[in-house]
Here is the input.
Amino acid sequence: MENFDICLISGSVEDMLKKRAQLPLYFQVLKIKFIQQKYYKIEISDSCWIFNAVVSKTAAAKSSTNRDLSINCVIQVNSYDLITSKDGKDKIIALKEFIVVDNKLDIIGKPILINAVNYPCQGTPTNVSDNCSVASYNQSEKTPDRHQPHSQGIFTESHRIDQSIEDANKVLQEMKTSYDSRLSGLEKQIQELQITMEKLASSLKVNDKL
Here is the structure.
C-alpha cells in the first residue's frame, strides 16, 4: 500500500461539491510531473486540477526529478474533506482515500490512503499551478469513457447513477400524475353516482307515499 500526503488546491470547489455529493468520484489523470524529487503534480484532464503529494519511495524510484510521466490513469476517490486555507481565501479538497482503477503503472487496484493533510501540503512549492485555471464540474449530457482522455475537466461514474435516478424520478412523476388524474376522475364518478342514488331514493319515497 502506498501512502501520500495529498490535497487539491482550488479557488472554488463549491459548485463541484454540490453536483458531486455522491461518492465515489472518478478522475481522469493525464500526466504526473515530479517536483523537487519528493513532490509531484498530477494534471487531471484539460482543466488542470492540481494535486500536490509526497511521493512514496516506490513511486519516486520510477521517476527522476521534474520528469513528466504520462500514465493515462483513472483514480476512484472514496472519501474527501473540504477544508479552508489558513488565510480563509481558498477552499481545498483533501482526499482521504482513493484507488487507482486503471493505469499503465503496476499499482492498479491498490488502495492509496492519505495520512495527513496540511495547507500548503508539507513543504510543497507555493507556485505549482503553472497558471492552470481552476476547474469546475461540467455536467455534460454525454459521459465520456472513463478509460479515455477527455476535455470535461472531471467526469464521474456517479453521473450515470444521477441520470438514472433522474429518469426514474421522471417516470415516477408521470405515473403519479396519471394516477392522480385517474383518481380524480373516479372521485367525480363516485360523486355523480351518489347524487343519482340520492335522487333515486327520493323518488322511491315519493312513490311509497302514493
Observations:
- The chain has three helices and eight strands.
